[in-house]
Amino acid sequence: MPLHKLEQFDPNYRETFGGDEVKALDVYTEGGERVGLVVDVLVDDDGRFRYLIIDTNVDSVNKKILLPVGLSQINYSSRRVYLNELSRDQIERLPEYQEIGNVDNDYEEKVRSVFRSSTDGVTDNKTYNYQKEPALYELNDQYHQTFRLYEERLIANKHRIKTGEVALGKHIETETARVTVPIQKERILIERVLPTQIGTVVNTNELKFQEGEVARIEVYEETPEIRKEAFVREEVRVKKVVEQDIVEAQDTVRREELNVDTAGELHVQQTNTTRDETV
Questions:
Q1: Dihedral class, residue 232 (left if φ above 0, else alpha if ψ from -120 to 50, else beta)
Q2: Count of the separate structural domains present in the chain
Q3: Is 144 within a domain?
Q4: Residue 251 three-state SS
């Protein structure tokens, strides 16, 4: 299975590990002797740790080696890696690590053979499976298992939805309107009355009798003129106003809490960003 350097596999690996940094951790034996420094990690295609790349310095022997991760115990809080076993003889027999391109099946088999007590149950390296040797490649849960505690939170968001619409139009209503217009009509009134000088003798020589039309009077009357005109009766203005409201919602959220069970007289230190607890 191809191997990859940690940062090449996951550029944001520190966020993945919750801020822990495996590089630059000092490497110590179980007896407390410093034997080197972790310079990188090789992971498989699934992101599982397979080898620690260690820059060793033991008894004037200095070289980079690959150490199967199952032989180590990583303690991030103390910034140390403790080795289950790594002797001067093993360091001398381990092939020197140069570049990842040189790590093939044969190279890995040379590394594994240094730490095997026997080859029983080990298949050909071309069909090798890391699960066949958990002592070399399985992380010790007590020291290595990194997991996250999750909690649920209510996230408030909002989006606009159409709740209705208002359409304005016009229609025509008819009604009978009445208007009063005073008009004038002229008429002729002919009155025949007795003369004021009744019985007065008129000189016939001066009197001229006439026939035909002697007077003309024109008679007029007013006729109503009714027409229609349009006037602005009312204006309608349409606009939208935004009203603010607060909507409260509630739901049940879950949160994972850590349970630590200990047996015997052990001192387990739990550290977070707010407090240190010692059990």
A1: beta
A2: 1
A3: yes
A4: coil
